[in-house]
């Protein structure tokens, strides 16, 4: 079967993290079967993951960048097969300007797409969450222990997924971005940066393949009507 370049694969939902359904329910090897590029988190919110050119990396809460094994388990992750098209070169532009330029260049805000930006960023600020154990607490409580990292100037790759508003809850509506420095000594879930100089490329999807952890009894038995899913996602993300 040829790799499908227009499908975004997602395991789990952001919503299941909210009440603390943090069991690892997908192996890295199985995520890589659905893409050579991606982002995610480990069991118990164990760090921030980024997959580039088929190699999965974890940025842990100590700020270390680790190679991820095939048996590493995840509650939530995205992957796809890279087939990016160059979108533009940017020179010392701010994050809001970048977002405006991107939204004016992409055809529509109503489908999923990925952005890959290779370049140099100033005041790049990231976070990574330490792994928690059972019994798991809510996303808000678990994420409150996150570590913050900042680099004045750093060269690397930003990988982002854009999700349309109507999928808020299944994903984060808008952009969800992770970063890895070229020298592999910095990265994480992006909280912000000041300016970027580099190349922006773009890949649009027409299909979301949503996989759910149907063999996980905690997930299958959970009553989501008692949770403030959207409120808590926007507090934590
Ligand atoms: Zn993230």
UniProtKB/TrEMBL annotation:
SUPFAM superfamilies for this protein: AF0104/ALDC/Ptd012-like
GO molecular function list: acetolactate decarboxylase activity
The entry's keywords: Acetoin biosynthesis, Decarboxylase, Lyase
EC top class, as a word: lyase
Gene3D superfamilies named in the record: Hypothetical protein, similar to alpha- acetolactate decarboxylase, domain 2
Enzyme Commission no: 4.1.1.5
Pfam families named among the record's database cross-references: AAL_decarboxy
Pathway: Polyol metabolism; (R,R)-butane-2,3-diol biosynthesis; (R,R)-butane-2,3-diol from pyruvate: step 2/3
Catalysis: reaction(s): (2S)-2-acetolactate + H(+) = (R)-acetoin + CO2
Gene Ontology biological process terms in this record: acetoin biosynthetic process
Sequence similarity: Belongs to the alpha-acetolactate decarboxylase family.
Record's protein name: Alpha-acetolactate decarboxylase
Chain's gene name: budA
